[in-house]
Amino acid sequence: xxxxxxxxxxxxxxxxxxxxxxxxxxxxxxxxxxxxxxxxxxxxxxxxxxxxxxxxxxxxxxxxxxxxxxxxxxxxxxxxxxxxxxxxxxxxxxxxxxxxxxxxxxxxxxxxxxxxxxxxxxxxxxxxxxxxxxxxxxxxxxxxxxxxxxxxxxxxxxxxxxxxxxxxxxxxxxxxxxxxxxxxxxxxxxxxxxxxxxxxxxxxxxxxxxxxxxxxxxxxxxxxxxxxxxxxxxxxxxxxxxxxxxxxxxxxxxxxxxxxxxxxxxxxxxxxxxxxxxxxxxxxxxxxxxxxxxxxxxxxxxxxxxxxxxxxxxxxxxxxxxxxxxxxxxxxxxxxxxxxxx
Length: 342
Hints:
The protein is an alpha+beta fold.
């Protein structure tokens, strides 16, 4: 749980960085706003470890389904997150922020970020717990160095920190002894080399992805397990809004409170959607897409009906956000049941 707490703080920093609000879900627009994808999760590679120990099975990219890689020092609000597909394709995002770097056009600070994708070569086995792959290609959604101003923030688009000058990437699998890793590699993942009681561990309990030329290392985490582990935080956050509501007296404040509750479950729903789209078989993805289209139509109609009695009045928006929050929350719990079955 203490390792969870560390990862959760990294998640909060990444969320505050805000650069992920440029990442758009490609499969379907589930809600009205763009998903903020700055969440970090706890490493849990027990299944992967069991498979690796089976002599009849070799490590492949398919073993990385439901796994994300994070490059972060734990100091400061920055991180690079990436996933790797079954064919060796990868995609990810980097985000950092400097809220003290302000100007007339960007009073809320400066954010550095990028969305990237690329391709890795086939894996080459070095030994039972070490594989390598060459970085064949990497491209960016925005040109490196390009700037953009939005919502009082300056966005500066950069390259993928952690993949600096990358040529050969090493995959060190769970069970790799600590002494097999270079000092440079260990320096980036040292915060993960402890158990839940902060006792040092002598071998990896996650997959380490090491950029040998850049001397930079990513650690892995299981997205489903950690989403479920942090779910109580979302419930706690909602309760804090409900407690706050008891002391509000102006319509403006009550409307803002309803909006915040809607946004909370809106973001959680997008997080669930992204996870499910990364782990479900293609036929189940299509079924979920169809179900989500039907749910969106249902939600939009219910929200409209909720505000209709006060149409044009100051209370209309609050009624609509209240309904949106409740319906979205219910959908979040439905998708949570799907995740529990994975």
